[in-house]
Every structure is written in structure tokens, then in C-alpha cells.
UniProtKB/TrEMBL annotation:
It comes from Microbacterium murale. This is Geranylgeranyl pyrophosphate synthase. Belongs to the FPP/GGPP synthase family. InterPro entries: Isoprenoid_synthase_dom_sf (IPR008949), Polyprenyl_synt (IPR000092), Polyprenyl_synt_CS (IPR033749). Keywords: Magnesium, Metal-binding, Transferase. The keyword Metal-binding applies. Its cofactor is Mg(2+). It holds the Pfam family polyprenyl_synt.
Amino acid sequence: MGDPDVGVDVTAVFDARLTEILAHRRGRSQAFSAPYAQLWDALERMALGGKKVRPRLLLNAHTALGGTDERAAVDAACAIELLHVALVIHDDVIDRDLVRRGEMNITGRFASEALLRGAPRRAAHAWGESSSLLAGDLMLTLAHSVLARLDVDERRRQAALEIFDETVFESAAGEHHDVWLSMHLESATSDDVLAMVDQKTAAYSFQAPLTLAAVLAGAPPVLVAELAVIARRIGVIYQLRDDVLGVFGDERETGKSTSSDLREGKETLLVSYARSDAAWATVAPYFGDDEMSASEGESLRRVIEESGALLFVESLISDRCDEVHRLIRESQLPAPMAEQLVDLVSTCRTRTS
């Protein structure tokens, strides 16, 4: 998924700490095989890149909620970023992607190197995917390890670990549901798609960073619960906008082809709604076709729009934003946190990349 702009840049303290954590593991890898060390080199490059959206959410929220334990917040932010890397790596394997952020991902890099060294294509790809699966596992375990070692009282550490455990559990459920929907073995309702989005995106990208920040800041349970509900709602808004941009966005701004989701057969709310239109049958063969042409993609987009799907999703985004604003107004959140959330809703609603 794309990333919203959520405020200040990641602190130098966070960058230094994440670098320290990764360098330690990379150093340990030197005692093993050369390919294993190369795997950690690739993981370090990947984890230190990106926009660090989730760590920023966590660190900004921790400050807004009056948190004072910067070290604990920074370590939690590192864990959230490592979890993100793990899920992205596994997601690429599931989607059979070879590219991430405009360059070869771990599967692509390791498979390409094996091909250059004379490995058969099938074996090279298996090597690349195996490397990715192990890399994702390593990041997931490292994220858990960082949280388990938080230098905080036992109550907060256990609460943080419970959030992490539930986040991974839900994210896996969402990913599994997404794969099932993409097989198109049965009709997906709007509720099916929204449930998948809530589990796959909202849980780890919004709820986890914000509730971890609240727990570490010592916020009372009622406030943590309010923040969790609001975060989930914002996550769904974010993903609905992402799906619209994936089909109707400006490729120069999004950096992503408006045909890729259609070629992959991604079951979004747009598609779920458009399926009920009689014209869908005329373009259904193009959906999920790796060889879909530009003109066929344009036909799909036209049917989706003319079915009313785009208007429906835009209307739903607007309604969800109104709902979140109401929840923020009625909450007991301190003003700085409420203001951050209002800004975040606006960004998720109007973003173009």
C-alpha cells in the first residue's frame, strides 16, 4: 500500500536505534554462510528505506499523549517498522511480486543472482522465494524480540506484547481473506471486502502504532480503547482511498500503474460494487488477466465508474470521515492527540499518492 504524510520526520534517535538493531543482527550473520550475510544486507537496506509512516504515527502520538519514556517509544517504533517489513516481504511472496519501491525485492534479487550463476529458472525462483520467506520470518521474530525487551514495567510490556500478538493474528487473517477473495470462487459482498480491509490494513498500520503509543504513555484503558476504535476507522478510510487511486489515480503521482490492481484481480469495494452492474459481464474476462491490454483496462475502468462504484466509494469515504470526526469530538483524547487525528483523517481522505 502507499503511505500518507503524517507529520514530522522520523527523529534521528529512531534512525540511529533502528540502524543499531539491524547492524547487530547483520554482524552476527557474518559467522554463517555468505548468502545468509547477504540476506541480512538486503534486509538492512530494505528496513532503513521507506517513509517510516508507522513509526511517525507512534512517536507523534506518544508525545501528544504526554509520554516521557522516549527510549521505550523509539524501541516500539522500531518494532512496528520491523513488523511492517516482515508483512511486506511475505505479501510480495503471496502476490508473486519481484519488485518493491521501483527495484527488485528480495525474491527478485536472490533469484536474479542465482540465474546469473547458472541455476535453472525454476530453482532460482524457488531460492528467491525461500530467501524472502525466511527474511520475513526473521523480521517478525526481531520485532517481537525488541518489544519483549522494552525497559518498562511488566504491565506495560505485557500490554505491548498483547497488542503485537493480536495485530499479527488479525493481519494474517486479513491477508488470508484477501487471497481467498482474489480467487473469485464466490461472490464477495461489500461487507466481506470491508472486513478484510479492517483486518489487513487498519490493524497493523493504524491501530497498533497508536495503541502502543497510548500504552507506553500510560494512558488509561478507556482512552486506549477510544483510540483503537478511531484508528481502525481511519485505516479503512486510508485503504478505500488507496483502492480508488489504484484504479483512477494519476500514475505520475502514485508511482503505480492504474492497471496493476485490475491485472492482479484485486477484489476491492469498487469491484465488488461494479459486479452487480449488467455491463460487468462484458469486461469480466479482463479482470485478473495478466495479459490485459491498456484498452481492456480502460474498458474496465469505464464500467466501474459508470456502474456508480466510484461515486459509492467516494460517498462512503465521506461518511466514514464524518463518523471519525464525531468519534474524535466525543472522545476523552487530549487536544494535541485529537488535532493529530483530525489532520490524519484529512490526509487519508484527500491524498493523491
